[in-house]
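[job 4471] stage=fold_predict status=RUNNING
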Amino acid sequence: MSNLISILGAGESGVGSAILAQTKGYDVWVSDYGTIKPQYKTELDKYGIKYEEGGHDESKILSSVKIIKSPGIADNVPLLVKASENNIQVVGEIEFAAAYTDAKLIGITGTNGKTTTTLLTHHILQKAGFNVGLAGNVGFSFAKQVAENNHECFVLELSSFQLDAMHTIALDYAVLLNITPDHLDRYDSIQGYIDSKFKVTQNQNAQQRFIYCADDETVASQLTHHTTDAQLIPFTYDGGPLEEGAWVDNNQINIKLNNPKTEFIMSVEQLTIAGKHNTYNSMAASIIANSLLIRKESIRESLSDFKNVEHRLEFVGKVKGISFVNDSKATNVNAAWYALESVQNPIIWIAGGVDKGNDYESLSPLVKSKVRIIVCLGKNNMKLHHAFRKDVDMMINASSAQEAVDLAYGLGEKGETVLLSPACASFDLFDNYQDRGNQFKRAVRSL
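[job 4471] inference complete, writing structure tokens
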């Protein structure tokens, strides 16, 4: 009988899965439709793992006992449709690796804020002396860490695509921050995307916790359809006090948990990450930290010395009185809304890229009141022009980060902020949002 596992996609998650599969005695085959980056080839060669690039050997892949797919590959690609017709199990890296670890699993999802919350939770646990891994959509491959390290817990950032490929995992702590329309190019409907996010609660039992934002209308209304056996721990901005959960009162975060019985208070002003959305992120991370009985002083210290993720409302510099902020990680409308809301100065907004079925209507009031000029950075900017041309003094197109920065600087006035917060994916002009943010920062520094 075949002992072959095929891995589709030779990026961080695929190569990590290959290493874990090999250490567990499987015959491993890695197949990438594109080209494999040199560092990943080096790693595959080091472990003696066979691979192909530039196409898929379909007959070999369809002779596998299991297929592990990269999160970027949709379930409806013909090869995976054939695999399921042949009753071959198709899973993601997270599902595969979780079967080989007894570590506590903390899974964090949401349309926005999941990277910040994941990094913040990891920071608190690490500072408190936990042997903790960081994985999922951030950090290094979960599977590779399971193969090579003996962590007592993992903090996993989970995208909807990763959740779609999870079936049997039960997370010890599942966090759902918010749900707004995103990735509608990949889902048939907004309900499909919502169902995907709620998979974070699947298989949870009464000893496990589901931590969620009670202020998010979609999350709150969908709780009736998505029932779970887990303990429900809500967090809210001004809906407190709660019998159990987290809330803000008098500019202080309050946390009250009944099992184990614990209370925690901290001033919002002590948080190093500003903005209402980051208060939500801090409440979610603090509920986990208090559940794990981490010392209150240690939690406070971690929340007040945490440095936020690169490319998320990152101040780049000031040139002749004009401030430049890199929010390249804002790949959807809601993330851009947070960014526009958080900037107090008049704004020159650099936006655009690959539209993911965006509805820009919710941004219109903020754009009217705060934005003077929009620089459109994308190959096709028609939708942006159509949405905002009546709201601003000027709209102008740019085809590179350098051109966008030069235009914004040339048109900018002292006291204004140039904000890169694209509300779109980056793949038309850049490798990814990091590449877009780095090119923006280089262009600013060249001024």
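[job 4471] summary: The chain has three domains: 4-92, 101-305, 314-445.
[job 4471] exit 0
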